[in-house]
Specification:
Low-confidence stretches: 1-15, 190-213, 500-504
Strand content: under 5%
Keywords: Membrane, Transmembrane, Transmembrane helix
Subcellular location: Membrane
Number of strands: 0
Shape: globular
Helix content: over 70%
CATH architecture: Up-down Bundle
Number of domains: 1
CATH topology: Growth Hormone, Chain: A
Membrane topology: Multi-pass membrane protein
Largest sheet: none
Structural class: mainly alpha
Family: Belongs to the unc-93 family.
Protein name: Membrane transporter
Order of helices and strands: HHHHHHHHHHHHHHHHHH
Length: 504
């Protein structure tokens, strides 16, 4: 198994011989596990900080109004996804010019740059690193798709996608531990002493009062420690991607050894955008983006902006833990079922994902103050206040639904355009990031009802389009199977004729 860049799997002959002795499936799993672990490292900071970013920025703004805008958390993420949109147009060409492994490493470095900015918050570096983070997103998911297809067969792609996603999604569990530990040492001591007086203040507030003083705040020490740890773990991801094997497996879906000029890569990207196969899937991709913005940042922000929950300082950690467990458990379940049920990773997973997304929205709309996504508030929810248990359940369902939607997105892109998979992955991320970017730009003006009504409607539209495309794929695969059977029969007949010819 030779490395495409240096002619060996690693520079160490001992390591190379060890890898060579592995069975093909074991080597395949090693590559997928390392890909998932690298994902875990870089996303521990990225996803965990997204849960608290708007609240952290708001805390900094309250102490120093001139340093950064109060809604820079939302706008920074919008900038990130805007850069993501633009980079998606050229990321496949970048992949062709380098390799999946190199693309993943460069992307991971972009991710590491973002948390470093919080060691001394500066508005200019913040937005620059947010844009760089967006570049990293586009390169990462293109490299991730390329690495998956060059280290998976048609039989293992659904399982490998789920394994990689399940390992990577454990980042939320790791992030929950980090947030809880740092919160305990920096904010936990004073939480109980101030809880009683805080409850009295909130009780005296009018229902429609918007408060700037009762919400959960993050101290400078807490911010420094959180983002320092996020940067350190992201650096481990840099090293992981640098050490990953890069040689393809036998019978992989698509080889990583492509020789495509940059101009030709742009042309392929343009043709992918025009393809009816991608156009019909646009609602599915946008659903993934809108749902991502909601569960990653907007709903977690409501937990810290709701003044009635100000004494529950561990809610971000509880939410992160719930999402991480939901993602991991669902990824493993999809992998298990995909091995036993044909095409489970497509229609069944999409249906489960949309159902869970609607349930997620229903629980949120009855337990969240309407204006909580926009600013600190003491408004009352529609029915009841969220408890720690309810937040954990909501997070668990949110993680499960996200894993389903992201899994079907990866599988459908790998199968819908067999000759242009890299472009298909980039097109999917392009539309996903457009959905996320738009939501983050307008989120300071939207109450909770826009999300909890709009997302289920989008689920219905996306499901219809997705089912239509999967039916076309099934017909295509059936036709290819029939062609292969016909060719086998022709070869058998030809062999019989040759035998008869020799006898007579």
């Amino acid at each position: 198994m030779a490395d495409s860049g240096s002619g060996s799997l690693t520079s160490s002959s001992a390591t190379g011989s060890w890898l060579t002795r592995m069975s093909p499936r074991a080597f395949e799993l090693l590559c997928i596990v390392m890909l998932g672990f690298g994902h875990l490292c870089i996303m521990t900071g990225c996803d965990s900080q997204a849960f608290i970013l708007e609240s952290v920025i708001h805390s900094i703004h309250e102490r120093e109004p001139g340093r950064i805008n109060s809604h820079a958390g939302y706008y920074g993420q919008a900038t990130c996804y805007l850069a993501f949109v633009i980079t998606c147009l050229v990321s496949p060409s970048f992949l062709y010019a380098t390799s999946a492994k190199t693309t993943l490493f460069i992307a991971s470095v972009c991710f590491t740059s973002f948390p470093l900015g919080f060691l001394y918050t500066n508005q200019y570096y913040y937005f620059f690193s947010a844009a760089l983070n967006g570049v990293g997103f586009a390169l990462y998911y293109t490299g991730n798709g390329g690495y998956l297809t060059s280290h998976s067969t048609r039989k293992t792609i659904e399982s490998n996608v789920s394994i990689s996603w399940a390992i990577g999604s454990s980042c939320m569990i790791v992030g929950a531990g980090i947030i809880a530990l740092i919160t305990y040492f920096t904010a936990g001591a004073g939480a109980s002493s101030g809880a009683a007086s805080l409850a009295i203040d909130i009780a005296n507030a009018t229902p429609n009062t918007t408060s700037q003083h009762f919400e959960r705040r993050f101290s400078n020490t807490e911010i420094y420690l959180l983002f320092s740890v996020f940067a350190a773990i992201s650096f481990i991801g840099n090293v992981t991607f640098l050490l990953m094997p890069s040689s393809d497996i036998d019978n992989c879906i698509e080889s990583s050894k492509k020789i495509v000029a940059f101009r030709d890569g742009i042309s392929l990207m343009y043709r992918a955008f025009r393809s009816p196969k991608m156009i019909i899937l646009i609602p599915t991709f946008i659903l993934t983006g809108v749902h991502t913005s909601f569960w990653v940042s907007i709903y977690p922000t409501t937990l810290t902006f709701n003044s009635h929950l100000a004494s529950m300082i561990y809610l971000p950690a509880i939410y992160s833990l719930g999402v991480g467990l939901g993602e991991t458990i669902t990824g493993l379940l999809i992998s298990f079922c995909s091995k036993r049920i044909n095409n489970f990773g497509m229609r069944p997973t999409m249906f489960i994902g949309c159902f869970l997304t609607c349930l997620y929205c229903a629980l949120i709309v009855v337990s969240t103050p309407p204006t909580a996504p926009q600013a600190p508030t003491s408004e009352k929810p529609l029915w009841f206040q969220p408890t720690r248990t309810l937040v954990f359940i909501i997070a668990l369902i949110g993680g499960m639904s996200d894993c389903c939607l992201c899994s079907v997105r990866s599988v459908i892109c790998a199968l819908a355009m067999p000759t242009r998979r890299d472009q298909a992955f980039s097109v999917s991320k392009f539309y996903q990031s457009i959905g996320t970017c738009v939501i983050f730009f307008i989120s300071p003006f939207l109450n909770i009802y826009y999300y909890t009504i709009g997302i289920p409607i989008l689920c219905a539209i996306a499901s219809f389009c997705f089912f239509f495309e999967t039916r076309r794929i099934k017909r295509m695969e059936k036709s290819l199977t029939n062609m292969e059977l016909d060719q086998q029969q022709q070869r058998k007949k030809s062999s019989k004729y040759e035998t008869l010819d020799e006898e007579f």
